[in-house]
């Protein structure tokens, strides 16, 4: 090879700089610093030539390292200098800014008109009324609790979605729960159990119980009634949520390595310190739709009659239909169902699961809402929804499609100061939100961030009240798909009510559903199993 090839220019400059400044430093010590700088660059160049891992560094010693530097800071460069204001990947600059502004009580108005292309396909808006109403109280709430619930809960229509201690730092959890207590809204624990940081502030909790049964498990990982009762009967626990699946990685379990199982995490989860903590991909306390309903009834009884429901990211439609058939067959209904969209997820997940597994929120919510309407159970069961919900319009649109309340995870993370660095899984979160590093999380000052959590919630609901008022309504629960419009093309718009399928009351029980998903998959569902029951013609072949 030629040592004088242009790609070695930087290396030779380092050699000349080291030699030249070295000679000057021999007579004048002031030249020592530049000599040391060039010597360090020369040492780096020699290391680049000798290493065998990166071809670009061997071919371009010293200079090749810039490639890795720019790759390392690419998210920051993109976010601060090159990112489009309206492109959501996963959240746009405008979406993050509105959270920051409302959390910090800054002005959340924008001059000079919309930045959206109102003639672009999929652009949506809410129709306003010629007779808007005045809404005095924007603390919008929904009563959660069916006929078998003796301790119903009056929930805010905007709450903190499931995020576990361990995924979030102690300071982040404390700030979230403190803000929830001040604003009188609910904080979902995530499946990592109820930690001391959830308990200390005293905010309302939705206890999320996943397949690992953290906080209610025996030594072998199976469900423990005794441990469940000890936590479920706490006055701070207002609802119990069985996690069937989540938007980030539906159908995928996980293991928390023993090295990350600290005494605090072990205390919250009911596991041993330093031992691998397994969260299976499916539950062990039940294996059939009927079993799930019996588990719901069991938890409701053990909790003293508190609302019990489940959370899922919709997958095979026949499995969801099987759960509904189990409700009809047993007469047991959950008090609520939370639909998580595949676009959701605060935790790290395999790329294929993040991008290509699970039903998005809009489609999952419509399927769940319509099915319950079609079997006359919608009045007994409340529906929560989560998945990229940030603004008051996001909430209004989601309620219009059938939800009773909305949850947000990343929205409340932004209110804590998250900058979307997307380093959540590295333990190097720059703002202290998703790290267990005690020094990093010290940067998150709890009193200040708790106030921002409270402000974000309050100001978002205030904005929602203004939207609802403009539509001529006095409560968000009166929103329907008749109020939201979507642009289909440059010269055509449609109401969501005419764009999406909606079942009539009892229509599914009548046996003549007008939509293909019900005609094909409802007959395949069976209350006794999550497996599809094939039509006789297919089974015979």
Structural summary, described in words:
Helix content is 39%, strand content 12%. It has 21 helices and 15 strands. The strands form four sheets. The chain has an eight-stranded parallel sheet with strand order 4-13-12-11-10-7-6-5. The model has no long low-confidence stretch (mean pLDDT 90).
Catalogue the unreliable spans: none
Average pLDDT for all residues: 90
Number of helices: 21
Topology, number of strands? 15
Give the CA-based shape.
globular
What spatial order of strands do you see in the largest sheet?
4-13-12-11-10-7-6-5
Radius of gyration: 28 Å
Distance between the termini: 68 Å
Helix content: 25-40%
User: How much of the sequence is in beta strands?
Assistant: 5-15%
For the largest beta-sheet, the strand count, sense and barrel status come to: 8 strands, parallel
InterPro entries: Aldolase_TIM, GltB, Glu_synthdom, YerD
Organism: Pigmentiphaga daeguensis
Domain Glutamate synthase: 156-473
Keywords: Membrane, Transmembrane, Transmembrane helix
């Amino acid at each position: 090879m030629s040592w004088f090839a242009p790609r070695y220019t930087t290396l030779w400059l380092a050699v000349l700089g080291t030699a030249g400044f070295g000679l000057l430093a021999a007579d004048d010590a002031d030249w020592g610093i530049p000599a040391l700088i060039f010597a360090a660059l020369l040492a780096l160049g020699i290391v680049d030539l000798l290493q065998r891992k990166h071809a670009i560094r061997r071919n371009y010693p010293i200079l090749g390292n810039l490639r890795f530097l720019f790759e390392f800071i690419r998210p920051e460069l993109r976010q601060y200098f090159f990112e489009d204001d309206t492109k959501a990947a996963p959240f746009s600059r405008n979406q993050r800014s509105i959270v920051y502004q409302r959390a910090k009580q800054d002005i959340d108005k924008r001059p000079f008109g919309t930045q959206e292309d109102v003639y672009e396909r999929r652009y949506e808006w809410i129709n306003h009324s010629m007779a808007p109403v005045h809404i005095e109280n924007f603390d919008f709430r929904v009563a959660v609790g069916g006929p078998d619930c003796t301790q119903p809960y009056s929930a805010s229509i905007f709450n903190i979605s499931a995020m576990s201690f361990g995924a979030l730092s102690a300071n982040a959890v404390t700030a979230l729960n403190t803000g929830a207590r001040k604003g009188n809204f609910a904080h979902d624990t995530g499946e990592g159990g109820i930690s001391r940081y959830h308990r200390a502030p005293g905010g309302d909790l939705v206890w999320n119980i996943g397949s690992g049964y953290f906080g209610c498990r025996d030594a072998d990982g199976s469900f423990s009634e005794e441990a469940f009762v000890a936590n479920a009967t706490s006055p701070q626990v207002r609802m119990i949520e069985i996690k069937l699946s989540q938007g980030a990685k539906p159908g995928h379990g996980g293991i928390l390595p023993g090295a990350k199982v600290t005494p605090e995490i072990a205390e919250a989860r009911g596991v041993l310190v330093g031992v691998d903590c397994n969260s299976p991909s499916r539950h062990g306390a039940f294996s059939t739709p009927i079993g799930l309903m019996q588990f719901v009834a069991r938890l409701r009884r053990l909790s003293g009659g508190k609302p019990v429901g489940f959370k899922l990211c919709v997958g095979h439609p026949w499995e969801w239909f099987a759960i509904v058939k189990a409700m009809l067959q047993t007469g047991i209904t959950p008090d609520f169902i939370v639909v998580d969209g595949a676009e959701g997820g605060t935790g790290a997940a395999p790329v294929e699961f993040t991008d290509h597994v699970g039903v998005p929120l809009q489609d999952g919510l419509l399927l769940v809402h319509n099915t319950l309407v079609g079997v006359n159970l919608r009045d007994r069961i409340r529906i929560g929804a989560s998945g990229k919900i940030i603004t008051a319009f996001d909430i209004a649109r989601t309620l219009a499609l059938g939800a009773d309340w909305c949850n947000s995870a990343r929205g409340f993370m932004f209110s804590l100061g998250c900058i979307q660095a997307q380093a959540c899984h590295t333990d190097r979160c720059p703002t202290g939100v998703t790290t267990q590093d005690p020094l990093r999380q010290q940067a998150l000052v709890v009193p200040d961030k708790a106030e921002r959590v409270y402000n974000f919630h309050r100001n978002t609901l205030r904005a929602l009240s203004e939207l609802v008022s403009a539509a001529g309504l006095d409560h968000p629960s009166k929103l329907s798909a008749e109020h939201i419009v979507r642009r289909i093309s440059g010269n055509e718009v449609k109401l969501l009510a005419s764009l999406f399928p909606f079942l009539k009351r009892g229509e599914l029980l009548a046996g003549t559903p007008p939509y293909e998903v019900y005609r094909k998959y409802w007959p395949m569902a069976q209350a006794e199993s999550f497996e599809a029951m094939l039509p006789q013609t297919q089974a015979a072949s």
